[in-house]
Amino acid sequence: MTTSAGHGSPDGTGAASASAIASRLALLEAREITKHFPAGRRGAVVHAVDGVSLALPAGRITAIVGESGSGKSTLARLFARLLKPTSGQLLLDGQAAPPGRGGRRRYAQQVQMVLQDPFASLNPVHDVRYHLTRPLKVHGLGPAGNLDESLAALLERVALTPPERFLRKYPHELSGGQRQRVAIARALAARPRVLLADEPVSMLDVSIRLGILNLLAGLRENEGMTILYITHDIASARYLADEIAVMYAGRLVESAPATSVSDRPAHPYTQLLLSAAPDPDRPEPVRLSGRGSVPSLLTPPPGCRFHPRCPHAMEICSQLPPPPAEVAPGHVSACWLHAPERPAGTVAPAERRHDGPTRLADDPSHQQGRPTRPALRHPPFPRPRHGQSKEAGDEPAGH
Ligand code: SF4
User: Is 214 strand, coil or helix?
Assistant: First the structure.
């Protein structure tokens, strides 16, 4: 299986070769995309996203995982074209995203975003009916048949039933979960092919997060929707996504099928993230621990941006950005531990400061198809039922 996520190479020559096949199958793709924000002081910029390549395969869920400040939400906004990239390219169906106002509107119809805060994203002075009708007008889409029936069908797709109970409600009359379902229904009203879900459950009560995740899983299973799921919670990414890409300080550091990332994390940062994720089934703690916090993106560390926190940091790590390397089929890590070659005069593999396997391909247990460490056998909640959430319309207000 090839990864859908490429990593910007340090020299800017393009994504890792492992992503080439997947790129051809991608519905939406970012190539070497960069976003720098001016920061007030003369010449200073925030390096929010640097040279990220990521391909979203059709009909699959790709998760981007990272701490606050990793650039994952900025990347989602670049995909949505809410931000203009400093450099790099967006491709839809292998073609450059259409320019101009009309092109942006056509793109927006196909690529819709669901924001983190459902209360802020819905206009408090308008009811549900207004919110669901507006995308039809904006994108010039006639309802498929009778308008009321179309709106009812939309609400049923997000498990807000009976629909007539919700159409005339205002956002403040809905629970948090119900509001997020309305926000998703509004996105679906535009009949998109891609949903960009930016932390869609992080502001919801824990008890109703699972229903929203299952709703997204159902859209993939039943309708073949392509979804980008942004989260800081690697456990929920493991639960929902087919592929996981991990970001750190504006760069992509690891990408692989979701089970590979959770069972055999290669990059020290991913290992750190997993060590912080609660998992009652984990037979033993992940060995690594890190120190410090995400660096300032005004002056990101040179070389590997993780090196000030990394327990395996070597001399070269502070000098040169690590190139992406395939550590297992479809599993790419940007870390000098996994680089097949390194510049002359740098620390040799035997001198590294850790005692674990450096390349998963060098690890006998991985060659035999077994994980290098005890697998996280189950996510902290049950596998998706790929159906609609139970009693979504009956969530009590206030959640
Ligand atoms: Fe750690 Fe070096 Fe790998 Fe960065 S490149 S994660 S500092 S070992």
Answer: helix
Of the chain, the end-to-end C-alpha distance in Å amounts to: 39
Cβ atoms of residues 244 and 267 within 8 Å? no
Residues sharing a CB contact under 8 Å with residue 145, sequence separation 6 or more, in sequence order: none
At 390, list the tokens: 């139970």
Tally of CA atoms within 13 A in the half-sphere of 344 that contains its CB: 0
Residues with CB under 6 A from ligand 1: 267-268, 304, 306-307, 310, 312-314, 317, 322, 335-337
321 alpha carbon – ligand 1 mean position (Å): 9
Tell which one of 246, 312, 338, 360 to mutate to probe ligand 1, the residue whose CB is within 8 A of the most ligand atoms.
312
The pTM of this model reads: 0.81
**331's tokens:** 């599993």
Atom from ligand 1 closest to the CA of residue 253: 6
Decide if 318 contacts 304 (C-beta within 8 A): yes
List the structure tokens of 117. 């805060």
For 318-346, write each residue's pLDDT tens digit.
999 999 999 999 999 999 999 887 776 56
